[in-house]
What we know:
43% of the residues lie in helices and 17% in strands. The protein is built from 16 helices and 13 strands. It has helices spanning 32-44, 49-69, 130-133, 139-153, 156-161, 183-193, 208-219, 281-288, 297-302, 304-322, 341-349, 356-365, 374-409, 428-432, 436-451, 466-478, and strands at 19-20, 26-27, 75-76, 89-96, 100-108, 118-127, 168-174, 200-207, 223-229, 233-240, 262-266, 420-426, 457-462. The strands form three sheets. It has a six-stranded mixed sheet with strand order 3-11-10-9-12-13, with helices on both faces. Strand 1 and strand 2 form a beta hairpin. The longest helix is centred in the C-terminal third of the chain and has 36 residues, at 374-409. The relative contact order is 0.17.
Amino acid sequence: MIVVNPSLSALHLLSLKPSFTENVTPVYETTMDLLLKEVQSLFEQQLRVESLLALSKKLQAEFKKRLQSSPQCMLPSHNYTLPTGKEHGTYLALEVGGSTLRVALVDLDGRASSTQSLRIRRIVTSTIDNRVRDLRGLAFFDWIAGRIEEMLAADREACDHMQLKEPLPMGIAWSFPIDKRDGTLQKALNIIDASQNLNIRLDAIVNDSSAAVLSRAYVDPSTRLAVILGTGINAAIHLPVSSLHESKFGSRQVPTTVDTTHVLVNTELSMFGKHAFPVTRWDEHLNAHHILPDYQPMEYLLAGGYMGEIVRLIIVEAVETAGLFGGILPPALSIPFILDTRTLAAFEADTYPNLAPSCIYFQKEYNLPAAPTPGEMHFIRQVILSVSRRSQGYFTAAIHALSSLLQDLDDGLLDNGIDHICIGCDGSVINKYPGYMEKCQALLDQLVHIEQHGRKRVVLESAGESAVLGAGVAVAMAN
């Protein structure tokens, strides 16, 4: 017997328990079908084109406000120009991320080259594990220098270059905001530069989203912005200097020369949208229990680091209120953030009617005591589809807002002879989640079409390996 309470309050989240009759028949507050309909309604009712356009306008207003008055967002970099596509040469490029260091040699042959104009010739990846994270003082940078030496020693041409008087130019892509005025950071990086075993020279430092713009702009002159969507989200955009308040530049002089009319801006996109995005009770629970509530509201709603947790919270509620898994939560699924985006992608890519491949994967990966029933697998997959569709919709609204901001502020785009704007896209969700970028492109086309304000078409293009390639382009521009 099932008792349905259609007025189930959000305050019951994660607290409702099944009760039992004398004959041990569980009595639940709702059914999986009703809960699924609620999930689909809450996650997808805001994804109509008109709703996403309204969301885009709210984000545009917030972007413009923070261009004038925020010390955390819309941060002007030290990169003012975009590549011409004529830069040539071989350069050393580093990508320093939260868990990996990648050292590469990048070849630039020019945009007009008949072969691949921008490519990685050699790359070595090293894990930044706890041992490396625990290095004290400047020892971390000594460790980086050692990894550079190992990579260069394996490349004959680079090895020969180390014997020459002229040092090999190097660029670094850093996966967090950079202030080049930070003397400690510069001193640390100089350890790499001045290593006795290397003949290199540090010429450029960029963050990962700026690197994505530079790498894509080198091969496509219509590129003006780029977005990284993986565990988190960020974007960089090339805007007129005049669109930012002078306080944004801190103690450095606001550029006024003919060559510095624009500046590459690190948006810190994850921090936007607190009062723009509609949220569900599961989002509110995630935010309330986060170590930094409200800090990155956009990221919490759509990025790869959080999609799985939102699905897990719905599963927990379904177990306790609708009898999923017989009302018993598998121990592994009680662990916050245990459900990763790989699992969501496996479900979404599974086209078998009985979802057998994802069922086997799910049971093994999370040590389920028994295989889920077909009905339970269907429920979980539909929940995942709703969460990913919302991610795609909100992501598309943010991209539309950025491209609209660009066209509103940069008059030079109107008559540059290019009928579209390219957005470079990178990150694990973009690159690995089934059909993510293609679905966002289709939705973005609808937004631009229905708006009918003479906007240019916005084209999402893959910018794979953008951090390493962008660091190579940055150092080439510096030379």
